Amino acid sequence: MKVIQSSKNPVVKQWKKLLTKKGRDQSLTYIVEGFHLVEEALKQHDTVLELIVIEGVELPNKWNLDGVELIQVSEEAGKVLADTETTQGVFAVCRQKETTSIDESKTFLLLDGLQDPGNIGTIIRTAEAAGIDAVILGKGTVDLYNPKVLRSAQGSHFHLPIIKGDLSDIIRDLKEKGVPVYGTALENGEEYTSVTPEESYALIVGNEGNGMSQEILMQTDQNLYIPIYGKSESLNVAIAAGILLYYFKNGQ
């Protein structure tokens, strides 16, 4: 087992770059932190390249580490990699494996310019739980491999096809296949319960502050809204997505 003591070690500096989008894009790798996410990563074939553990932290005996390089680091070096206030002391460097084809999918969730990593991770986790076939991240949406997105998704990105793409092109392709496309907006919108869910559909949620872009809104077949009964102006986008996803799932 390799041992690294200094936080200034070149290898540690390279790992630290994975906390930035530029570093992830250049290396086509990313880093996950914590026992749960590392365990989920280890379950995926040919995904974990390096397993990093802070000295004194014990790894579960059940973990299969065949083919994985195990590296022990000092507490000082481990703190450099941590994206949490109190780290569990275990990290994994993973290979990016983005899905390029969603031809076999029937249900889709499209994210239009979402900026809050916690919201995106929660939406991905909820979409996977609700049985969505694929999630599509449009332009302006925070990177899938952002540490806060990964932490909020709790490993759901391993179990769900997720792609990045131009939503206008994707919507056009979906409509050509006969998939109804639903936006989320008050503008020309109908209450979501007025829709009878079909076997195949695409649902779009938009930016936390500005909602869906006008360009994308103009391409939808129908726009939906969730009524507000209290004094709040709107729902959190992750909560709204959860309500709509389960409505569409349970109504099929």
UniProtKB/TrEMBL annotation:
> Which residue ranges does the record assign to the RNA 2-O ribose methyltransferase substrate binding domain?
31-100
Q: Name one GO cellular component term.
A: cytoplasm
Name the InterPro entries on file: Alpha/beta_knot_MTases, MRM3-like_sub_bind, Ribosomal_eL30-like_sf, rRNA_Methyltransferase, SpoU_MeTrfase, SpoU_subst-bd, tRNA_m1G_MTases_N
Q: Does the keyword Electron transport apply?
A: no
A Pfam entry, by short name: MRM3-like_sub_bind
Give one GO biological process term: RNA processing
In the record, the note on similarity to other proteins reads: Belongs to the class IV-like SAM-binding methyltransferase superfamily. RNA methyltransferase TrmH family.
Q: Mind telling me what this protein is named?
A: RNA methyltransferase, TrmH family
The organism's taxonomic lineage, starting at the top: Bacteria, Bacillati, Bacillota, Bacilli, Bacillales
